[in-house]
């Protein structure tokens, strides 16, 4: 088990920036991947970005070039730097930790943090 605590959400104007943080209650090395997902009202939860234990990253097409995922293993923390935010980025952002055991994924989720982009 692991507890994931997100922070850093809030209200920002279009074109602005925010940095989300997700701190895990245990070493993030034990997970195959850490990531960020988001869910807007009336929509399914979608992948935003992931970072594997091998330091590879993956981004949704909609955020490429604007968002950057990074990790501080010593602090058991994953970050999501979000630049040039747009209204369509408004959503609840969730931190995810995934372990894959014998090809079966086990997902852990944070409680979510609200990001609202509005003028």
Strand tally = 11
Q: Quickly give the structural class.
A: mainly beta
- Overall residue-averaged pLDDT value: 96
Uncertain segments are none
Q: Helices and strands, in N-to-C order?
A: EEEEEEEEEEE
Q: What value does the Rg take, in angstroms?
A: 14 Å
Give the number of helices. 0
- Specify the helix fraction band: under 10%
Q: Could you give a short account of the major beta sheet?
A: 7 strands, mixed
Q: Which descriptor suits the 3D outline?
A: globular
- The fraction of residues assigned to DSSP E strands is over 45%
Q: Would you write up a description of this structure?
A:
Strands 2, 4, 5, 6, 9, 10 and 11 form a seven-stranded mixed beta sheet that branches. Strands 1-3-8-7 form a four-stranded antiparallel beta sheet, with no helix packed on it. By secondary structure, the chain is an all-beta fold. Helices cover 0% and strands 55% of the residues. It is globular, with a radius of gyration of 14 Å. The termini are far apart. The chain contains no helices and eleven strands.
SSE layout:
Layout: E1 4-7, E2 10-12, E3 18-24, E4 33-39, E5 46-52, E6 57-59, E7 67-72, E8 77-82, E9 91-101, E10 104-109, E11 113-117
Parallel strand pairs: 2-11
Antiparallel strand pairs: 1-3, 3-8, 4-5, 4-9, 5-6, 7-8, 9-10, 9-11
């Amino acid at each position: 088990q692991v507890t994931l605590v997100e922070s850093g959400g809030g209200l920002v104007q279009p074109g602005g920036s925010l940095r989300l943080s997700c701190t895990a209650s245990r070493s993030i090395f034990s997970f195959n991947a850490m990531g960020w997902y988001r869910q807007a009202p009336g929509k399914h939860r979608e992948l935003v970005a992931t970072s594997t234990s091998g330091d590879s990253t993956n981004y949704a097409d909609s955020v490429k070039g604007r968002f950057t995922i990074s990790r501080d293993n010593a602090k058991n923390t994953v970050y999501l730097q979000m630049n040039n935010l747009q209204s369509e980025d408004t959503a609840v952002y969730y931190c995810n930790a995934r372990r894959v055991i014998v090809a079966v994924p086990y997902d852990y989720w944070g409680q979510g943090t609200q990001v609202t982009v509005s003028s």
